[in-house]
Design brief:
The structure holds three protein chains of three kinds. Chain A is mostly helical. Chain A folds into two domains: about 1-40 and about 295-375; about 55-285, no CATH class. Helix content of chain A is about 70%, strand content about 5%. In chain A, β2 (about 195-200) and β3 (about 200-205) form a beta hairpin. In chain A, α3 crosses α14, α4 runs parallel beside α9 (about 205-225) and α7 (about 100-130) crosses α8 (about 135-155). Chain A is globular, with a radius of gyration of 24 Å. In chain B, strands 1-4 form a two-stranded antiparallel ribbon. Helices cover about 70% and strands about 5% of the residues of chain B. In chain B, β2 and β3 (about 195) form a beta hairpin. The chains are: A mainly alpha, B mainly alpha, C alpha+beta. At the A-C interface, α7 and α15 of A face α1 of C.
């Protein structure tokens, strides 16, 4: 018995240094350095840069906020937010065929997207419940799978089964949607509803108000019974189950909420862009938002609203300046382009590695404690037996 | 215990083991094969296509096996190995090798890269046991995007590879004409009517597959299986788990490097930049369709899976086009392959780490 | 008891959402209105084009039309209001009219003939549907700039 326990303690390796070096603040810090380095080289005027960043904050914040709830429920980064984005796009495609324009068009698109998002979210949540412990890779593959279904619907069923009237969005062959759908008459309608101009910087106040409302909702939601349940599930599923929480249901709800919010977020995103790239708008959106969130200092199991905004600012500053800085340094504009791609993926990789090493360390520490406890108990029991 | 099982139970159990998605996919391919002659598709050409594509892709799928065996999960980091292969390919051409020799040299040059990258990759995966697949995916993505910069920046000069105008920076596709195009396929090629069999490539695949099979039956190989099926037991038995895992990752990476070279010699082109980005997904779904699971894979799974997957890839467009004049093959392929991966990920596995 | 109330609430919420959706259909319908300042014939009678018409929609001047000119405006909603500032002959004093009319829901593009409208003819006389002849364009020209990566692999 003694020998066995000794073996355990010796074979358990000490926590490694990589997690120590890469502390939480390191990612935002690294980005600040990259940005500080690239901004002067890029040579963009401060007002242009500020304008771009404010625009992108309005455009992306809502989408990124949709990631927070699954993180709270311990389901990691929801790569399945793409599902919501696709639902939002379907809403917008239908609305633009019906020629409902402006803000009413956005509202209607959101109303159409919600039931689709809910269905997709329930499906995704159920699958993720079957793949506990590898939610992220599963939700990632899920986004590809649903993308296949989306293509089936948009490329083959729209125009043949789902009526599409206007040839401006239909492919010449008579069914399927064109590569781009123009949202000209919805373009920046929300941003311009209340827009103020502060020394040359256009601030889309209404968009920010909506983002603010979502932030307040998330803060409020954390305090509700359901929110508390989600956090409990995120902490420890078994403990939560013992406490009488329906773990599976709570997890599904968190994914459904995320998907619905992502759908609405996508509509806000696309009204700013002014057109839908039917087959590619959503494909990278998940990766983008996740990278931005992580750049803001979030980790796989902990993310706050502050991380979202810091992330948007830093990530998009890098995004704007990198191609120009790259072009200036190397004389090739593609270098900067590839550089920002690389940085986005590298950030996600680093964050994932940090999360896994921390998780492993916590696990081995707690199991060591448990073992020590057991050994002590056994020793005591043995001692009693001897007496 | 097992004797009490009735025949019916056993059929039901094996069916459950086989899995509904796999059944659907196999059924679908059989249906395509039956339909093909009726809709006017030339069956021999189709079969020839399947064999050819099998020969291109077989080794990439084979590259899944070592990592699955050691419990590292599906190798979503395949692009890393592919990168090593691409480095071998481009350097071999850069150094002026031509013909079949350039293929051999590509393999030789790719090997050290694969060993180094594989070691680093294996070291990383040992740090994060349990989260391999997600991190592997992103290691693949990061390495591909890093190499995108490198293809532009590295001092390549061979006029057959760089952009003509700028004189530097590799092209997105490089023709292998004059280099190792059909280097293996051309060896002992058999032509019967419309069917052409790339004997050389098939033999090369068989050689590697046999090598892996034989390896898995050596002492180290069985240790690898032990690590995969029960790491705690393996550790207790005195096996150095980390070392074995590392070995499996290096093997997978090297096989991926060789795999892409074989693919290129069949395809006739080197594809750089973002091309390797999603190459892991077809290979992953192929081995899963062949009957593998997240922690169990055999050479048989590789062979069956590649045939089924490539069969669907080649048959669907022609049959669909001839039947309903609608090319839905792309969509069907995505749904089938991703559905298969999803299905595999949701299966309960005995040992998750 | 509670579940019944919950059900009622849910049904109510659903109804409200549906009502909003219906409302959006009406107030959000977009039309493109084209105005022609063209001599037109209706029931054998001719309506002479004006010398100059200035069209203002939502306080914004959208068109200044001479004879045989056509202007256009994008509108939202089912009711269309515009202000016309008409100069009958060269040199004469312009006079201003505020015109409002319901637009037919089914038409995307609507042509309004101003001389006929001003003559007080019924809607079917001065209104006609504008049918866009689809412009054949190659799919490749559809590529456009987004702020995403301009590069991507294929699954």
């Amino acid at each position: 018995m003694k020998a066995g326990s000794n073996k355990y303690t010796t074979s358990e390796k000490k926590p490694t240094a990589i997690g120590m070096i890469l502390r939480q603040a390191s990612v935002p810090l690294m980005f600040i350095i990259i940005c500080a380095f690239c901004i002067p080289i890029a040579g963009l005027s401060p007002s242009y840069l500020a304008n771009e960043i404010v625009t992108r904050m309005g455009r992306n914040s809502f989408l990124i906020l949709s990631l927070l709830i699954p993180i709270m429920a311990g389901m990691g980064l929801n790569f399945g937010m793409t599902l919501g984005a696709m639902a939002g796009e379907i809403g917008l495609i239908l609305v633009s065929d019906w020629q409902i324009v402006g803000i009413p068009g956005m509202v209607l698109a959101a109303i159409i997207s919600i039931p689709i998002s809910i269905l997709l979210g329930i499906f995704c949540g159920k699958i993720l419940n079957k793949a506990k412990g590898r939610e992220m890779i599963t939700s990632y593959i899920m986004s590809f799978f649903i993308n296949g279904i989306y293509q089936l619907v948009v490329l083959y069923l729209m125009g043949s089964v789902i009526p599409i009237k206007h040839s401006s969005i239909k492919l010449p062959r008579g069914y399927g949607i064109r590569n781009t759908v123009s949202l000209l008459r919805m373009r920046q309608k929300l941003d311009n509803l209340i827009a103020i101009n502060v020394s040359g910087i256009k601030i889309p106040v209404m968009t920010f108000i909506i983002i603010g409302i979502l932030c307040l909702f998330i803060i409020w939601f954390r305090k509700t019974k359901l929110g508390q349940d989600m956090r409990a599930v995120g902490q420890d599923m078994e403990v939560a189950r013992d406490a009488g929480i329906d773990v599976e249901r709570t997890r599904i709800i968190s994914i459904v909420m995320s998907t619905v919010l992502a759908g609405i977020g996508m509509i806000i995103y696309l009204q700013n862009m002014g057109n839908i790239a039917t087959y590619s708008s959503h494909s990278q959106i998940g990766m983008f938002c996740i990278a931005a969130l992580l750049v803001g200092g979030a980790s796989v199991d902990r993310a706050s609203i502050g991380n979202v905004f810091l992330g948007v600012i830093l990530f998009h500053t890098m995004f704007i300046v990198a191609p120009r800085a790259g072009a200036y340094i190397t004389g090739d504009s593609m270098i900067g382009e590839y550089f920002r791609v690389f940085v986005s993926y590298a950030v996600i990789t680093v964050a994932l590695v940090m999360y896994e090493t921390n998780k492993r360390r916590a696990k081995s520490e707690s199991s060591r404690e448990l073992r020590a406890q057991q050994d002590a108990d056994e020793a005591r029991a043995a001692g009693k037996g001897n007496v | 215990m097992t004797e009490t099982k009735t025949f019916k139970d056993r059929v039901a159990a094996s069916l459950k083991n086989f899995g509904l998605p796999r059944l659907i996919i196999t059924g679908f391919l059989v249906l395509l094969l039956i339909l093909a002659p009726f809709v006017g598709a030339d069956l021999p050409t189709q079969i020839s296509n399947i064999i050819n594509r099998f020969s291109w892709n077989g080794i990439l799928v084979l590259a899944m096996v070592p990592m699955v065996h050691s419990g590292c999960g599906l190798n979503f980091g395949l692009p890393l190995g592919i990168i090593s292969g691409l480095l071998g390919a481009t350097l071999s051409i850069e150094f002026g090798f031509t013909g079949r020799l350039s293929f051999l040299m590509a393999i030789l040059i790719a090997t050290p890269f694969a060993l180094v990258f594989g070691t680093l990759y294996g070291w990383l995966l040992n740090k994060i046991k349990g989260g391999e697949m997600m991190i592997a995916t992103y290691v693949g993505f990061s390495s591909v995007s890093l190499m995108c910069m490198m293809w532009l920046l590295l001092p390549y000069h061979s006029p057959n590879m760089v952009w003509g105008l700028a004189g530097k920076g590799l092209r997105t596709t490089i023709s292998l004409e004059g280099y190792y195009n059909q280097a293996l396929a051309g060896i002992g090629q058999i032509n019967i009517g419309n069917i052409s069999i790339p004997t050389g490539t098939l033999l090369f695949f068989a050689l590697l597959a046999f090598g892996i099979w034989a390896f898995l039956h050596t002492k180290t190989g069985t240790a690898m299986t032990a690590v995969g099926s029960n790491p705690v037991f393996a550790r207790a038995a005195g096996i150095n788990v980390d070392k074995i895992r590392m070995l499996s990752v290096v093997m997978s990476t090297w096989l991926a490097a060789i795999g892409i070279l074989v693919y290129e010699q069949g395809f006739g082109f080197i594809q750089l930049y973002m091309a390797p980005f999603y190459m892991a997904l077809p290979a992953v779904s192929a081995i899963l369709i062949g009957g593998a699971s997240v922690n169990k894979a055999t050479i048989m799974n590789v062979i069956i899976g590649t045939i089924l997957f490539q069969g669907i890839v080649t048959m669907t467009p022609t049959v669909m086009n001839n039947m309903i004049h609608m090319d839905m093959s792309e969509v069907i392929r995505i749904i089938a392959s991703m559905g298969m991966i999803l299905f595999a990920l949701t299966r309960k596995t005995e040992a998750s780490r | 008891m509670r579940s019944k109330r919950q059900l009622l609430f849910r049904a109510g919420a659903l109804l409200i959402v549906l009502a909003i959706a219906a409302c959006m259909f009406v107030i959000g319908r977009g039309h493109t209105v084209y105005f022609d300042n063209k001599t037109a014939e209706y029931n054998g009678q001719e309506y002479e084009a004006f010398h100059k018409v200035v069209v203002t929609v939502d306080g914004e001047q959208v068109a200044k039309l001479g004879k045989r000119d056509r202007g256009m405006a994008d509108t939202m909603g089912q009711n269309f209001v515009m202000t016309l500032e008409i100069t009958d002959e060269k040199g004469s004093q312009p006079h201003s009219h505020k015109v409002s009319m319901p637009l037919p829901y089914s038409m995307d593009g609507i042509i309004i003939n101003i001389p006929e409208l001003m003559a007080g003819l019924p809607a079917e006389a001065y209104m006609s549907e504008f049918i866009i002849t689809p412009v054949e364009e190659s799919e490749s020209s559809d590529e456009l700039e987004t702020d995403e990566f301009g590069i991507g692999g294929d699954v």
